Amino acid sequence: MGWLRLAFLMYVGLTIAYFLTSIYSRSVRREKLEKEWDTDPAREGLTAEERRAFIEAGMVHYDKGLKRRLLWLIYILPTVGFLATIYFVNWT
After folding, report:
1. What is the pTM assigned to this prediction?
2. How far apart are CA 57 and CA 90, in angstroms?
3. Which of 19, 16, 23 is nearest to 59 (CA)?
4. Sign of the Cα pseudo-torsion (84, 90, 91, 92, in order)
């Protein structure tokens, strides 16, 4: 039963890591979109609303992309390692 307690604590830690990594990744992507807007000379006379719409469209695209889905590996890889360790320690 100790492994259940360990698994619970592991998932609490992984959830914290997932949310912190997700927040950081979104902020990096948003910053990249802001810099892309600021450095493009063709967008120089456009309004703040158009800038906001560009950034939001980029964030919607990010939310559907591969990088966002790869964050689930934060849960998957430790779970596979945990289960493999339990299997090899007890049944081999």
Report:
1. 0.83
2. 50
3. 23
4. positive
Which amino acid is located at 65 in the chain? G
What is the C-alpha separation between 6 and 30, in angstroms, rounded?
A: 36
Please give the torsion angle defined by the CA atoms of residues 51, 53, 54 and 58, in that order, rounded to the nearest 10 degrees: 140
How many CB atoms are closer than 10 A to CB 29?
Answer: 19
Per-residue pLDDT reduced to its tens digit, 3-24: 889 999 999 999 999 999 999 9
Torsion of CA 38, 39, 43, 45, to 10 degrees: 70
Q: Kindly give, in sequence order, each residue whose CB lies less than 8 Å from that of residue 19, ignoring residues fewer than 6 positions away.
A: none
